[in-house]
Amino acid sequence: MTAVKELEQKLQYTFRDPSLLEQALCHSSFANEHRARNLRSNERLEFLGDSILGLVTAEFLYRQRPDWPEGELTRSRAALVCEKSLYGIALELGLGEHLHLGRGEESGGGRNRPSILADAVEAVLAAVYLDGGMEAASALIHRCLLADFPEEAPEQRNQDYKTVLQELIQHNPEHVMTYGLLDERGPDHAKVFTMEVRVNGKQLGQGTGRSKKEAEQAAAKAALELLAQENNG
User: Fold this and answer.
1) Active site residues
2) How open is the CA angle 11-149-207, to the nearest 5 degrees?
3) Which one of 19, 69, 87, 191 counts the least CB within 10 Å of its CB?
């Protein structure tokens, strides 16, 4: 079985024009080293794939979360399409072993570099779009990225930041999220609690409230805002 056929099986998509997939796997370092062959790198496909991924994910969240305000939708989309998320998809597909890299990039560990692999995922999505249309690209995005996004219970729709954060973190099974009490002040009738949320031991956010639950919601909201800033930065 050829490398292209093997990858097509993992993608659950067969290309009419296999050259599109080959281009999606061609890093700029390889194209620059083989200019005589007039190879095109995957950078333009990556640009297109980024927009397709954003659109499909935005529509999915818009329909899946009808009561979320714009800010919640934006933060959730940013977390879903971030480099870490796309890197995970690339690992599942074994995309690194199929990439065409220049000698320098190869020796520098480029085949396992998160940024290169995440870009390659976007390029492959664009290749599928150009070959089979939006329906094929959307189906691939739903299979690889959105299939595990949980259905929302009605009682969770009212700005439940903890649930939103939990859903995003659960996309990577290696991540462990915990809440902890940082501070507790004031008399019994007017307590103010400060809670933090940590992922794999690293603090993502903290917040205050008149109860521990309220403070946890504030901490989760702060964590979502931080993730959105990092992904958009």
Assistant:
1) 50, 122
2) 135
3) 69
Q: Return the CATH fold of 154-232.
A: Double Stranded RNA Binding Domain (3.30.160)
* Domain residue extents for the chain: 3-146, 154-232
Tens place of pLDDT for every residue, the chain, 233 residues? 466 788 999 999 999 999 999 999 999 998 888 876 778 899 999 999 999 999 999 999 998 888 888 888 888 899 899 998 999 999 999 999 999 999 988 888 888 899 999 999 999 999 999 999 999 999 999 999 998 776 554 444 446 788 888 888 887 778 899 999 999 988 776 778 999 999 999 999 999 988 888 899 999 999 988 888 776 65
What is the C-alpha separation between 124 and 25, in angstroms, rounded? 7
Q: How far apart are CA 172 and CA 84, in angstroms?
A: 9
Q: Does 154-232 match 3-146 at the fold level? A: no
CATH number of the domain located at residue range(s) 3-146 in this protein? 1.10.1520.10
